[in-house]
Specification:
The protein has two domains: 142 residues, Tyrosine recombinase, N-terminal domain (DNA polymerase, domain 1, Orthogonal Bundle); 187 residues, Intergrase catalytic core (hpI Integrase, Chain A, Orthogonal Bundle). It is built from 14 helices and five strands.
């Protein structure tokens, strides 16, 4: 089965499990948004709503003696916008209990910034909107809650010299610990190809790990990927990525993958399709050597590509298309500062009067 289809089925099964922990009325809500949202989005909503109902049971008098599973739509009318505000304040920092595979219970601290709070409010608003729309509640308190203000962060990316240092760190393995160097000889060709691919195409790490061998066309220098949201797209790569991928393909042909992972392009040391966590860890490992003062992740390599492309082309629409942004405003939001700097430079180009 296709990797992305397997991943979708995994998300569907996880969603079903979480829905079982929510009030039974929520099943209708999730069915109603099934055609307009991805399963990953719905799973995120389910986690957020589970936390919300847990909060109500522990902190709101009207729900303390009520089993979460037995909550009915009419009970939602007991929730005011103040309770939702209190919930958003609660998730700024809270602790949850987690049970390990060995049965040991541990306490996990969780912090949510304004982005995390906004996502949770979005899930709550969507649920209230549904029950209000179908007439099962007479008011919608979630609409009265102010959306947390999202502060735009400066884009963190690597400059040309830092990119070179990162690639050198992958190729040479210098400054790695002894235990890391022991594995480096086995993984450096793969790691170099992955980092070149992320830097040279701006693809997401989830798109990278989903690549199959047959998705790469060296003749056209294109790779078929599945974008966020489920749309297929072709991304193109340059000569440096071509060389890195070619060397890895030669190595990959000699590796016998585990059953079920034969089609995967990038493999782990266990000869299975590489995971997003492994890619995240390997990027951080080499970036810590090359740029110790910057917290570089695969997403920052994506920002590096987007920044370089915008600086060379000054075409925000091209950047949006290359990064796979469905909405141009997403690109403008992230590259607003650079966009403004370009506009300021434009103001200096034309002189109204020649110098006397």
């Amino acid at each position: 089965m296709d990797y992305n289809k397997e991943l979708e089925i995994e998300f569907i099964n996880r969603l079903k499990d979480v829905i079982k922990e929510l009030p039974s009325i929520c099943e209708d809500f999730f069915i109603s948004i099934g055609q307009t949202t991805s399963v990953k989005t719905r799973l995120g909503y389910a986690y957020d709503l589970r936390l919300f109902f847990d909060f109500l049971g522990e902190n709101v008098k009207a729900f303390r003696d009520k089993n979460i599973l037995d909550i009915e739509a009419k009970d939602l009318e007991k929730i005011t916008y103040k309770e939702i505000d209190r919930f958003l304040d609660y998730v700024s920092y809270h602790e949850t209990e987690s049970t390990t595979k060995l049965g040991k219970t541990t306490s996990v601290s969780r912090i949510n910034n304004e982005n995390g709070k906004a996502r949770k409010l979005s899930a709550i608003r969507r649920m209230f909107h549904y029950f209000y729309k179908v007439g099962e509640i007479q008011s919608n308190p979630a609409e009265l809650v102010e959306t947390p203000k999202i502060h735009q962060k400066n884009i963190i990316y690597l400059d040309k010299e830092e990119v070179e240092m990162l690639l050198d760190a992958v190729e040479t393995g210098t400054k790695l610990t002894k235990s890391q160097q022991a594995y480096h000889n086995y993984t450096k060709t793969r790691d170099f190809a992955i980092i070149c691919l992320l830097l040279g195409t701006g693809m997401r790490v989830s798109e990278c790990v989903g690549i199959n061998i047959e998705d790469v066309d060296f003749y056209t220098k294109g790779i078929k990927i599945l974008r966020k949201g489920g749309n297929e797209s072709i991304v193109y790569f340059g000569d440096e990525v071509y060389d890195a991928l070619s060397k890895y393909f030669d190595e990959r042909e000699e590796i016998e993958a585990c059953e079920g992972h034969e089609d995967a392009l990038f493999l782990s040391m266990q000869r299975k399709r590489i995971s997003t966590r492994t890619v995240q860890n390997l990027v951080k490992k080499y970036a810590k050597i090359a740029t110790p003062l910057k917290n570089i992740s695969p997403h920052k390599l994506r920002s590096t590509y987007g920044t370089a492309l915008y600086e060379k082309t000054e075409d925000i629409y091209l950047v949006a298309d290359a990064l796979g942004h469905a909405d141009i405003n997403t690109t403008k939001k992230h590259y607003a500062k650079m966009h403004e700097q370009r506009r300021k430079q434009a103001a200096l180009v034309t002189k109204l009067r020649e110098d006397k």
